[in-house]
Structures are given as structure tokens and as C-alpha cells.
Amino acid sequence: MILPIVAYGDPVLKRKSIPIDHSYKNLNELIANMWETMYQANGVGLAAPQIGLNIRLFIVDATPFAEDPEYANEEGIKDFKKVFINAQILEESGEKWAFNEGCLSIPEIREDVSRHERIRMTWFDENFQEHTGEFDGIRARIIQHEYDHIEGILFTDRLSPLRKRLIKGKLDNILKGKVSCNYKIRFYNK
């Protein structure tokens, strides 16, 4: 089932998410719905807060970057598809690099965001098997973006005060529901 994506302005996007365990109700169905929702919206990642759930769950699929000549040769991109439950970033390392990011919860806005090139983290997969791993390049970037969502951080929070002022009108339009999307979106009503 395709779920509506929560738009900028909804308080769930600014809350730190809570851990879940293997008994979380209908977890497999939720994950399947998240994949369907993300693919329908042409995303490469989706976090539970973006569908209104304040839990530490996100999914990523970097496969579309394998078709981009700039990233096609990056190791591990092709078929990089994972579920992350209760993820914790243990270490960020390497040079920070800028990349033009967007977000399904913040339609029609893209901005350069600097992030570390490498991360080391722990997480549980959809079967609640624990993993520790390192990711770099575009994989690390996608994970960091989605991880921010479960920490209550949006990519716009990482912009300079000047950039924030320059996009304020566009953010206000999202708050007013004055954007168009090719996917289901739910605007926040105070």
C-alpha cells in the first residue's frame, strides 16, 4: 500500500524517534509499504517519520545511482538495498563533501549539504539480525540523510543561515500546501 508522505512542518519530522523491537506490530507489512511508497515517489530512501511514525526505522536503495555515470563505478552502489532498524552511527570520518540533496518531505527544494564521506554504524535488519558496518560515498550520504530523519533533523537544518533565508518562501509554500508532487503527500494542519 502506498502511504502518504508527511510534508515539512509536521512535528513528527522534528522529533527524535524511539527504538522498536521484533514484536513491533505488522513490521513486515510496514516495511513492504515503505518500499512501495518510496519507489512510487522515485526516492532512494525513506524514514518512518516521513510516513508519520516516530520509530527508528528507515530504508535505502542506492541502485538508481548505479545508472549515473558519476557514481556508476562506486563500489557497492549496484543493488545496495537495506532496511535499518534502531540504527546508531558510531563514527563519521573523512572529508566532508557537498552534494545537492532533496527530500520527499520537502518537495521542490534541493540544496547543497556537506556530509562526511565515511560512516561506521550498527543496526538491525528486517529480521532483527544485528550488523556493524562501514559505508562510504553515496551510500554513506543516503544513510546519513535518512538517519537524520530518525534524529529529528531535516537537511534544511544543515544549511547556513543565509541559505535558510533564501529558501524561506519555498518552505512557507510547503506549509501552506502550495506545492505539487507526483506522489501522495500529507500537509500539516495546525
Automatic annotation (TrEMBL):
Gene: def
Keyword Iron (UniProt): yes
Pfam families: Pep_deformylase
CDD domains for the chain: Pep_deformylase
Active site: E146
GO molecular function: metal ion binding; peptide deformylase activity
NCBIfam families linked: pept_deformyl, PRK00150.1-3
PANTHER family: PEPTIDE DEFORMYLASE
Name listed for the protein in its UniProt record: Peptide deformylase
Class of enzymatic activity (EC top level): hydrolase
EC number annotated for this UniProt entry: 3.5.1.88
Catalytic activities: N-terminal N-formyl-L-methionyl-[peptide] + H2O = N-terminal L-methionyl-[peptide] + formate
